[in-house]
Design a protein that fits this description.
single chain; 10-stranded antiparallel beta sheet; 12 helices; alpha+beta; 8-stranded parallel beta sheet
């Protein structure tokens, strides 16, 4: 039971029949606040409850008292929506002593500065703790103090006795009735993790992790040590986030991950999380050890992204002169990013730390990490490569600005390499052409940057010198491969048996990128990252430009162009990917990656970026561009994880095998032609592999003597009609109508633009009203959909925060709005092949069935729409 009281603008307490004690911050009965109207109070008041807040910004502390009327005595949870940034906020009940509010448990944090600047003007819900209230009038007091300007702001506060979970401006109480087309709020109740949840996929996550031995590479697939059957890893980036949650909270998070079918997490970067001032912190490592062990118990494997960036101190053993020009961090630390891929000395320092971590014995498992099969992959270095713009662009310039001594060292290494290969200036000039006054005797040779080694020809200072460009590419590749090989040898010396990944990065030019992929074959597995969507806010969400494109009209482009870097004979993973909000079409990304990437292309592991906490909700969580905890991502995971675990999608045959001997990478031009993006323009390379092949079958790269092979796909690709059929017969990509159909015998789906369309799949016919959807039909009994007695429907359309506004063409976000997240309902009518349903029920976001069944027509058809305020439905036959 809940109780509510609220102050009217006249500051008179009103007893409300609703559910909670709710109070607006701007309506105290007594206040000593000092507001700052021309700056600190310049906030987006439409994002505040009641249209305002109360704030303090002065040399003096500020206090505010509020009178509440309690109808029933009991224990209440106190929530405040307040400024959490660099502030000190305390509270007191009646005449009790002040208690400072911990800002650790903050939710829905959002920038509310009127000018959008990331300064102090933020707001968040903060869980303060429990208050024991007696019947009658009580005074709740707040004080803003302790910072330089005693700054702070209070929007509102809430006292609840029934598990209310605040979101933005949404007040507790029964949901308002919805019309069929009305968007509805995502309302999350605390998850009890009931086994009655229809979406609970913990049964497909076999525990404990490692029970079948180490994860081995078997050709281009992964398998467990005791099995020949390929295994798929479907996961997220999910750091331990040490100190954020207590162990009970961390355990809830593990249950949450397991429930959504996640069987692997990526810790990124491990070293940052367990170190203090550049050294492994024993207390932090102990906390991480516990987290790893609990994941293992739950059947969740771990991938280690160990370093990004790797910091060192002056005492770390690096040459002092070189150390002095590394970018300065803090606490005496310097940054090795970029430069580490050209420095054996730095690489050795880093590898020593990595080996120590692998040899560390986890007291909670009794095993060293090297001996623990729950550690399924180790990445040597995140997003780093000598071929990338940073560092090669500066190192190769005439006057390096960032690291001139490192640039000189690299020029010397190149000269030594060239001398060993050509011996004399005459031989070098015969190979390269004009030397521009250079000589091997001078001990240095200039380098070309990525801009100069262009796929359309060598340009800049050494225009046309293909052989020189090819030799530089070979030199850099050999140097980088040697570092990787040293690390691989050191890792294997610990007796570690699972997967190794060199890095997951790219080069600054397509020519060099092909060589860069080759260097990654030193590891046992190939890995890449890719992103799409987003907007003006960069890593966050802000008003302004939106990258508003959809993949549905562009098969194999943007996020999925990464398919063209899969190496034959090697497992392949994407350890970072997302289609970022506020892009309105992002719900397409997860099913495309699952059905086409993990299914048709045969990829082995996927990690969405990035997961935090143990619940969906809070609008666009943390106003971040990288969030797993939304219906568009984790909300679709139960259906996608089930399809992958049960092998519902067939792997396709290879339709484009692009092969070259390693020497072919070092000719100063591309070894194989490839359509690719150059900025926003798609460049069609003569004879290149069309990106549309992503939707037909597997596309691979081989570094061997075999000839390249391109299959005849004319029967599968209707170029005029703009329709692509997969070679497996299970997938159809209609890029003219921007629509995908999944037609396997078991899992079936429709993704894309369907307004007014009648879609016939093998097991179900659907009539759609909604314009853009992802609807997945999952046979939970693992039977063909037409025969299934228990079906989960995952039906999603667009989302946006409450109050968010886009321009008419969707290319600008005019207002971010605030929580809760509003979901567009899918309006559709379904009729399954086979027997008539006995019942169809809507589910809440935790997967629990609601009491009322949906009406079923005489022919077995039924309709879903906004009146149900749901995106999961359970069908029983």
């Amino acid at each position: 039971m809940k109780f509510c009281a609220l102050f009217a603008l006249l500051l008179l307490p009103l007893s409300l029949p609703a559910a909670t004690l709710w109070q607006e911050g701007e309506s105290p009965v007594k206040s000593t606040m000092h507001r700052h109207p021309w700056w600190f109070d310049q906030v987006k008041k439409d994002l505040l409850s009641g249209g305002d807040w109360i704030s303090n910004f002065a040399k003096e502390e500020g206090t505010a008292d509020y009178s509440i009327e309690v109808s029933v005595a009991g224990n209440y949870v106190l929530w405040v929506r307040a400024n959490p940034t660099g502030t000190h906020l305390s509270y007191a009940l009646n005449d009790a002593a002040w208690i400072e509010v911990s800002m650790k448990d903050k939710r829905g944090e959002q920038n509310i500065a009127a000018d959008g600047k990331p300064d102090l003007r933020f707001i968040a819900w903060i869980k303060v703790g429990n208050l024991s209230l007696t019947v009658g009038k009580q005074t709740v007091r707040f004080k803003m103090h302790g910072s330089e300007n005693n700054h702070g702001g209070l929007d509102c506060f809430c006292l609840s006795d029934d598990g209310f979970q605040p979101q933005g401006l949404q007040k507790p109480g029964p949901a308002a009735p919805n019309g069929p087309a009305d968007w509805f709020p995502l309302v999350m109740e605390e998850d009890a993790f009931s086994k009655d949840s229809v979406i609970d996929m913990s049964g497909i996550v076999e525990a404990p992790a490692g029970r079948h031995g180490f994860v081995k590479a078997s050709g281009d697939h992964l398998r467990f040590e005791d099995s020949a059957k390929p295994i798929k890893f479907w996961g997220v980036n999910a750091n331990a986030e040490l100190g954020k949650l207590d162990r009970a909270g961390q355990q809830r998070r593990i249950n949450y991950l397991r429930k959504f079918g996640i069987n692997v997490v990526r810790e990124h970067p491990l070293f940052d999380e367990i170190s203090t001032k550049g050294k492994v912190d024993a207390a932090k490592l102990d906390q991480y050890d516990w987290w790893f062990a609990e994941l293992k118990k739950a059947g969740i494997y771990t991938d280690w992204s160990v370093f990004y960036h790797f910091p060192i101190t002056a005492a770390g053993g690096y040459d002092p002169a070189l150390f002095a020009e590394l970018p300065d961090l803090k606490d005496g630390l310097r940054d090795t990013y970029g430069l580490i891929t050209m420095s054996p000395q730095l690489w050795k320092i880093r590898t020593k730390v990595l080996v120590a971590l692998l040899e560390h014995k986890n007291p909670y498992t009794g095993l060293s990490y090297a001996d623990d099969p729950a550690l399924m992959a180790v990445e040597m270095q995140n997003e780093d490569s000598i071929f990338f713009w940073n560092p090669l662009g500066d190192l190769a310039s005439d006057k390096p600005k960032q690291a001139p001594l490192h640039a000189k060292l690299l020029r010397e290494k190149f000269a030594a390499w060239a001398k060993a290969r050509y011996e004399t200036d005459e031989a070098l000039q015969a190979a390269w052409g004009k030397l521009n006054g250079e000589s091997l005797s001078k001990g240095e040779l200039a380098l070309m940057g990525p801009w100069e080694i262009d796929s359309s020809g060598i340009r800049g200072r050494f225009a046309g010198q293909l052989k020189r460009a090819g030799d530089e590419t070979r030199f850099l590749a050999e140097m980088q491969m040697a570092l990787y090989a040293d690390c691989e040898k050191a890792i294997r010396a610990t007796k570690y048996q699972a997967q190794t990944i060199t890095t997951n990065w790219l080069a600054g030019s397509p020519v060099m990128d092909q060589a860069n992929i080759y260097t990654d074959t030193v590891g046992s597995m190939i890995d890449r990252h890719n992103y799409a969507g987003g907007g003006a806010g960069g890593h966050g969400i802000a008003e302004g430009q939106v990258f508003a494109g959809s993949h549905l009209g562009k098969p194999g482009q943007e996020l999925f162009s990464i398919a063209f870097k899969q190496v034959e004979g090697k497992p392949f993973s994407m350890t970072e990917w997302t289609m970022c909000p506020p892009n309105q079409w992002k719900l397409e990304a997860a099913p495309i990656l699952a059905f086409y990437g993990m299914g048709l292309q045969g990829w082995d592991a996927s990690y969405h970026f990035a997961q935090s906490g143990s619940s969906l909700g809070e609008g666009w969580p943390r106003m971040s561009s990288y969030v797993s905890d939304t219906p568009h991502y984790l909300g679709q995971f139960p259906a996608l994880a089930f399809a992958l675990a049960k092998g519902h999608l067939k792997e396709g045959p290879v339709v484009a095998a692009r092969r070259t001997k390693p020497d072919g990478l070092f000719a100063g031009k591309q070894a194989w032609a490839q359509d690719f993006y150059n900025g926003n323009e798609l460049i069609k390379a003569p004879g290149g592999t069309p990106l549309e092949m992503f939707a037909v079958g597997r596309v691979t790269i081989g570094f061997n003597e075999q000839p390249s092979v391109t299959a005849d796909t004319k029967s599968l690709w209707d170029e005029k009609g703009k329709v692509l059929h997969s070679a497996t017969g299970e997938l159809t990509w209609d890029y003219g109508q921007e629509r995908i159909l999944v037609q396997s015998a078991k899992t079936q789906a429709v993704i894309g633009k369907v307004a007014g369309a009648k879609i016939k799949l093998p097991g179900v016919t659907a009539d759609f009203v909604t314009s853009f959807v992802s609807v997945i039909f999952t046979p939970l009994d693992d039977l063909p959909l037409a025969d299934s007695k228990h079906i989960l429907i995952t039906a999603l359309a667009r989302d946006k925060q409450s109050g968010a506004k886009y321009s008419d063409d969707g290319t600008k976000l005019l207002s971010t709005g605030t929580a809760p997240l509003m979901l567009e309902p899918v309006q559709a009518k379904f009729r399954f092949a086979g027997s008539k349903p006995k019942s169809v029920k809507s589910l809440d976001p935790n997967g629990m069935a609601r009491a009322r069944s949906l009406p079923i027509d005489a022919d077995g058809s039924f309709a879903i729409d906004g009146t149900h305020q749901a995106y999961y439905y359970e069908v029983q036959r």
